[in-house]
Write a sequence for this structure.
């Protein structure tokens, strides 16, 4: 008897959401980011929350035995780095994973959604969705109190009743959050220098720090201008064994003057201690690939100044031709009546 | 993102349903095809950077009118150097009267760096209702890229 061999199915998505509520230093979060990379091929940080990461959890079972084992390993990593109350939710999409992390029972640290995301979400109140107050009010008026009830509606009815902007939330309620997990690895580069003699002079320490920062930047694997730096820190050891540390937000890839000014401010914190420093280390964290720097097209697109100039020129030349769309009548029952074109004025 | 609306029939509701962010969209509405070409030239000369969508040219319309064809050829000659030194990407939509058959007389095929053919393959439905469609996108021309590769894209319109 012949058996028809079925085509291989794509592996189901498994995404975990790691949340931490503690107030931790930016450096600890960056270190956690880097450490998580040992447990998953992709880590995405959610910048809107103090400590929030999405992790690719597909295919972790062969290495960790089961998903629970993987959760234990990830949480242990977080605890090691000082994030004691970390919570981990694991589901088939980002939204369900985030909800799973938020709805963990007291006394537990993780929740694995083994059933379908839609079934897991069905009993939750609609307030879990990122909807406007008005939309939530209308949902309640219509008796749609749970995600399951909203998910059961046809998409067309949702778009007509609550506007197309609510369709994303409707899909999430159905467990169809298709947002990709955009993995980025946090990186850290360091450079250290052992001073010949204890040094207390700020200028000398600054010169050493600038040199170390330059040396650390040279360790980057690709063109340094294609990377975005987020944080810089200095650790100094004094001649009596005390460890001094200072860190600050640095933002994008800095120029030499910016770096020098930032390092000077950090060094100034040590200078007040009046102690000789015998070893200086400069850390640069969060060196993730920065697509906007690599794709100059998008970088230029976001340059407001250039855009305003173009709008000004085109607006003068075609006063009635340059238009923008506006949501003119949000409550209009027919979709096409909600939007209108208006003249774009610079 | 800026759309040159050559036919003055851009459907905002359809764009919104397809997930286009209307708050970041600018539209140049022309009074005809020649006007749309001139607007595009002016945009590029003004230093526009970003994605510029020309919507759209109907092949029969262009082939039937020698003046239109001449204007298009002239515009393409003008745009070449402008695009080469700018950070703008021009996306051009051509609607074919015979799907899959690109007319020889249109100069766009030679000027374009990348050519994609988009063919609607089937509708997506939920019960009786059409909720979107599946399009097959095939790479016809690319400088340095693999050709004749294709993929399917699902467009949900509601």
């Amino acid at each position: 008897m012949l058996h028809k061999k079925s085509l291989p199915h794509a592996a189901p998505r498994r995404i975990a959401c790691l949340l931490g509520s503690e107030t931790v230093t930016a450096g600890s979060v960056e270190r956690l980011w880097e450490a998580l990379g040992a447990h998953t091929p992709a880590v995405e940080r959610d910048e809107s929350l103090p400590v929030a990461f999405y992790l690719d959890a597909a295919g972790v079972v062969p290495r960790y035995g089961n998903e629970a084992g993987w959760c234990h390993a990830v949480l242990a990593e977080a605890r090691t780095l000082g994030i004691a109350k970390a919570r981990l939710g694991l589901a088939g999409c980002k939204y369900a994973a985030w909800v799973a992390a938020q709805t963990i029972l007291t006394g537990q640290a993780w929740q694995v959604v083994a059933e379908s995301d839609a079934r897991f979400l069905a009993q939750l109140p609609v307030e879990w969705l990122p909807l406007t107050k008005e939309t939530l009010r209308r949902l309640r008026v219509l008796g749609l109190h749970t995600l399951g009830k909203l998910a059961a509606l046809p998409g067309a009815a949702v778009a007509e009743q609550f506007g197309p902007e609510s369709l994303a939330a409707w899909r999430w309620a159905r467990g169809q959050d298709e947002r990709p997990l955009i993995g980025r690895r946090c990186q850290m580069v360091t450079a250290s220098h052992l001073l010949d003699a204890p040094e207390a002079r700020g200028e000398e320490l600054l010169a050493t720090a600038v040199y170390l920062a330059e040396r650390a930047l040279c360790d980057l694997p690709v063109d340094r201008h294609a990377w975005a730096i987020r944080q810089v820190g200095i650790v100094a050891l004094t001649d009596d064994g005390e460890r001094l540390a200072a860190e600050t937000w640095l933002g994008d890839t800095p120029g030499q003057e910016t770096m020098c000014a930032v390092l000077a401010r950090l060094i100034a914190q040590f200078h007040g201690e009046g102690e000789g420093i015998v070893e200086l280390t400069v850390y640069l964290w969060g060196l993730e690939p920065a697509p906007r720097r690599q794709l100059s097209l998008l970088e230029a697109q976001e340059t407001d100044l250039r855009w305003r100039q173009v709008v000004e020129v085109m607006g003068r030349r075609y006063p009635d031709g340059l238009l923008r769309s506006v949501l003119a009548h949000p409550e209009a029952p027919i979709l096409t009546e909600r939007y209108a074109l208006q003249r774009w004025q610079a | 993102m800026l759309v040159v609306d050559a036919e003055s029939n851009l459907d905002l509701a359809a764009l919104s349903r397809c997930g286009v962010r209307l708050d970041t969209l600018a539209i140049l509405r022309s009074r005809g095809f020649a006007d749309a070409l001139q607007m595009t030239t002016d945009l590029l000369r003004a230093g526009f950077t970003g994605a510029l969508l020309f919507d759209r040219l109907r092949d029969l319309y262009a082939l039937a009118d020698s003046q239109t064809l001449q204007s298009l050829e002239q515009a393409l000659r003008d745009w070449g150097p402008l695009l080469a030194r700018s950070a703008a990407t021009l996306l051009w939509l051509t609607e074919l009267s015979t799907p899959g058959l690109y007319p020889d007389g249109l100069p766009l095929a030679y000027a374009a760096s990348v050519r994609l053919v988009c063919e609607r393959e089937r509708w997506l439905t939920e019960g009786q209702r059409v909720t979107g469609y599946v399009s097959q996108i095939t790479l016809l021309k690319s400088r340095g890229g693999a050709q004749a590769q294709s993929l399917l894209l699902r467009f949900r319109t509601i």
The first helix of chain B runs from residue 12 to 17. Chain B touches chain A at residues 11-13, 16-17, 22-23, 25-31, 39, 42-43, 46-51, 87-89, 126-127, 129, 131, 156, 158 (CB under 8 Å). The helical segments of chain B are 12-17, 33-45, 59-64, 66-84, 108-111.
